[in-house]
Amino acid sequence: MRPKEPTGHERARLRVLVASSRPLTAAGLEELLRAQPDTEVIVSSSDGMQLESIVRDTDPDVLILDVDLREWLARNARKRAA
Length: 82
Hints:
Strand content: 15-25%
Number of domains: 1
Radius of gyration: 14 Å
Number of helices: 3
Number of strands: 3
CATH class: Alpha Beta
Order of helices and strands: EHEHEH
CATH superfamily: Response regulator
Largest sheet: 3 strands, parallel
CATH topology: Rossmann fold
Helix content: 40-55%
């Protein structure tokens, strides 16, 4: 569920999901993103098996996805389509 849109002078926060199979990379990205006042890291995931449902449940504005997980998602999407 998405929070309601800001009104007046409030600024919308960019909702980011970080998904990486490399914990150190994910932690570094999260730290950089959390330092930005208009960015909210809504979740970080290293589990490709749960990634699709996490994206569906959290509805992020931006998904930062490492190549390993992208390839896993692509393979599984092809399997479901077949």
